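Deliverable D2.4 — example input (structure tokens):
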């Protein structure tokens, strides 16, 4: 059998195709994950006052609305397929735009949320500068990010290691890993100060083989051969009836304008 040809791809091209082909898949997995009765989007909303004027950057299929947000809201995303999925879920006030070019005036929002996207936005400094520009002084930026392994159980670490071995990877990687690892210094350049920084494990249950496949398909895996993804699906299917921990990080920042 001929070996599958490996063709490296750029992150930009990969993400465009990923969200075109699988709109809403991240929200499907995280929306089904639980910790103390909450999913990660409900957890994120705890750090945003319920009466804010909220801009949702990289809003995807609008999971914050499904998590219970009721006050004024505008969603921005670069993916037409994600916006279409959000619209199908009943969201209005949707804008097709890049995070680095937000089509809004200065100081327009009292809160900005960014769920599972800051590790992908490029260039990150340009995107944070735009977010700071549209935030009112003293306003909140609430981030939901992948967390580290510290909150995971031993069985989670075993299962993640087994999946990554099938994928021939040491760990999952994102374009902004280095800058997110130094989030305080990165944010401070734009007048954003960290107020709280929390981590929590959310459990995702492999209820069926399809749920196991969906979990693997939700992972960002550029330059991963199809055969390796197939191997990872077979691994995840062995865990039907049990769960895996997803480590999440929630960061609340406040805008303190630069002098």
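Example output (designed residues):
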């Amino acid at each position: 059998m001929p070996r599958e040809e490996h063709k490296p791809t750029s992150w930009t091209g990969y993400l465009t195709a990923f969200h075109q082909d699988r709109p809403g898949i991240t929200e499907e997995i995280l929306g089904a994950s639980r910790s103390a009765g909450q999913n990660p989007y409900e957890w994120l909303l705890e750090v945003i006052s319920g009466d804010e004027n909220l801009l949702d950057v990289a809003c995807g299929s609008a999971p914050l609305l499904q998590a219970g947000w009721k006050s004024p809201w505008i969603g921005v995303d670069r993916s037409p397929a994600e916006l279409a999925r959000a619209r199908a879920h009943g969201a209005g006030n949707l804008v097709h735009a890049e995070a680095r070019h937000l089509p809004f005036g200065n100081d327009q929002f009292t809160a900005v949320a960014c769920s599972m996207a800051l590790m992908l936005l490029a260039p990150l400094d340009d995107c944070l500068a735009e977010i700071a520009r549209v935030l009112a002084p003293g306003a909140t930026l609430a981030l939901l990010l992948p967390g580290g392994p510290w909150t995971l159980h031993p069985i989670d670490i075993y299962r993640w290691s087994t999946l990554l071995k099938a994928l021939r990877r040491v760990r999952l990687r994102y374009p902004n890993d280095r800058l997110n690892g130094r989030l305080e210094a990165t944010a401070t350049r734009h007048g954003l100060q960290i107020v709280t920084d929390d981590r929590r494990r959310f459990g995702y249950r492999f209820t069926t083989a399809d749920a196991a496949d969906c979990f693997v398909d939700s992972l960002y895996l550029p330059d991963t051969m199809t055969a390796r993804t197939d191997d990872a699906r077979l691994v995840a299917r062995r865990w039907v009836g049990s769960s895996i921990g997803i480590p999440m990080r929630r960061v609340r920042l406040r805008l303190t304008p630069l002098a």
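The two ends are 64 Å apart (CA to CA).
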